[in-house]
From TrEMBL:
One biological process term in Gene Ontology: negative regulation of DNA-templated transcription
Gene3D superfamilies recorded: Penicillinase repressor domain, Winged helix-like DNA-binding domain superfamily/Winged helix DNA-binding domain
Protein name: Penicillinase repressor
InterPro entries: BlaI_family, WH-like_DNA-bd_sf, WH_DNA-bd_sf
Any Pfam family: Penicillinase_R
This protein's UniProt keywords: DNA-binding, Transcription, Transcription regulation
Organism: Symmachiella macrocystis
Homology family: Belongs to the BlaI transcriptional regulatory family.
SUPFAM superfamilies noted in UniProt: Winged helix' DNA-binding domain
GO molecular function, one term: DNA binding
Length: 131
């Protein structure tokens, strides 16, 4: 079974990052955390959270008068979905080309290269063991 395709817009992703970090948050909490990078009105965030809930991205409970939101989708699944979509759209699914582009365009230090090599070795071992 294929995983759902979670393609979040920039504001949705920013809101989800707040919720993933906090675990749960009110509209005011989200607004406060986003204020430096995105000074948005309370109503804008409340409206976006309501839309995100209709899409199944978040859920809420009511405590007094406050709606307290929590993530309803897993950060790892969203990341995987968005990266897969990026690879498909920009690199026609060619992961090698995407990784080469990242290595050329980003400042990758020796520790990061070592971690990448370890990931590749682990994947090669998984593939050998699966045969």
């Amino acid at each position: 079974m294929t995983e759902p395709n979670h393609q979040l817009a920039a504001l949705q992703l920013a809101i989800m990052r707040v919720l993933w970090k906090r675990g749960e948050a009110t509209v005011a909490d989200v607004r406060e955390d986003l204020h430096d990078e995105r000074p948005l009105a309370y109503t804008t965030i409340a409206t976006m959270l309501a839309k995100m809930e209709r899409k199944g991205y978040v859920a809420h409970r009511i405590e007094g008068r406050a709606h307290i939101y929590r993530p309803a989708i897993d950060q790892e699944k969203v990341s995987r979905s968005m990266v897969t979509d990026l690879a498909d759209r920009l690199f026609a699914g060619d992961v090698t080309q995407m990784v080469a582009h990242l290595l050329d365009g980003c400042d990758v230090d020796a520790d990061e290269l070592a971690r990448l090599k370890a990931l590749i070795r682990a994947r090669e071992k998984e593939d050998r063991d699966a045969r």
